[in-house]
Amino acid sequence: MFYLPDTMVNWPWPRAINPHFEDVKIEVDAAFRDFKALCHESQEAFDKCDFEHLRIGCELMNIYFIVDEYTDIENAAVTKEMVDIVLDALHDPHKIRPEGECILGEIVRQFWARAIQTASLSSQRHFLDSFTAYLRAVVVEALDREHSHCRSIDDYLKLRRDTCGAKSAFAIYEMGMELPDEVFYHPIVAELVECIVELILIDNDMASYNREQATGDENHNLITAIMLELNLDRSGAMAWAARYHTQVEKQFINGLAQVPSLATCTDILVKYFDGIATWARANHCWSYESQRYFGARGAEIQRSRIVPLLPKVNCNDTSSVAKVNVVDLSNIDAAVHRE
After folding, report:
1. What CA–CA distances, in Å, run from 185 to 192, 195, 256?
2. pLDDT tens readout for residues 144-198
3. Helices (H) and strands (E) in the chain, counts
4. How far is the first Cα of the chain from the last one, in angstroms, to the nearest whole number?
5. Full-model pTM
6. d(CA 81, CA 86)
7. Which ranges in 92-148 belong to alpha helices (H)?
8. Backbone angles phi, psi at 95, to 5 degrees
9. Helix (H, G, I), strand (E, B) or coil at 307
C-alpha cells in the first residue's frame, strides 16, 4: 500500500454541484445509453459515474469517457482512424455518418450539433482548437503505448496537458461568453489556464496510478515518469507530485492578481477563472466519488489517504484488457484473485 497526499486541502474553491445536475444527468445518461456503445459490464460501470454540469458538459464528459474506452486498448493506427472520424464529425456535424462506422462519429456529431446551437462563436473556435489538440495527443499516447515508451517528466507534461482534455472541457464555462482571441490567448490568461490544467493532470495521475500500474498502462502517468527520472520509489514520487501541485496552486492564485490589468472583459474573465478553478476541485472530488479509480472505497481512501496496491491484471486475458478501463477497482481486484 502507499500514501496518497491530499493535494487540495488548501484550495480555496469548495466542492459545488449544479442544482439542476440530477435532472440533466438522467436525460443525458438515457440518451447515451441508446447508442449501445458499451458492453454490458462497461455500461454498468459507466452508470456508477457522476458527471458535472448541465447537458453539454455532461455529454462532453461522456465523450471523454468513451474515447478513452475505445482508444486505450488500440494501437496508433487504429486510434488515428477513430480520431479522424471524430474530427470529421466535429467539422461537419450535419453530415449523416456512414453506416457501419465507429459509433464515436455519431456520438460526437450529435453532441456538437446540439452545442453549436447555444455556444458563442468564440467558444466554438476555442473548443475546436483544444479538442483537436486533445485528439491528436491521444494518437501520440497510443504510439507511446505501442512502443512501451516512457517520457521524461517535462516531455510527459507537454503531452499530458493535451491528453487530459482539460482545455476543451473549460470551453463549457465559455459557451455563454464572448472572449475574443486577443483576450483568450493573452499570456496572463494562457498561463492561468495552464495552471489549472496542471493541477487537474497531477491529481488525475495520482488518483489513477494504482489502477494503471495494475493494468500495465502506467507509462502514461506522471508518477511513473517521476519514479524513473528521479529514481524515487512510489511514495517519494507521490510526495514530489504533491509539492509540485502546491507550487502550481500558488502560481495560479498569485496570477489572479494580474487579471484586473486586462481592462477588456475583466468581469467575464473573473467568472471564467472562478469556473475553471472550481473544475480543479470537481476533478479531485470526482476521482474519489465516481468509483472509477477507487471502486466503492473512494470515501474511505479519501479519509485515510492509504491506498492498497492492486495486483497486476493478467494482460493475456483480452476480455479483461478490453473491460479494464471501465471496471471499478474492487471488480479488478476480485477478477485477479479468481485467476
Report:
1. 11, 14, 15
2. 999 999 999 999 999 999 999 999 999 888 888 889 998 999 999 999 999 999 9
3. 16, 2
4. 21
5. 0.84
6. 9
7. 104-115, 121-146
8. -80, 130
9. strand
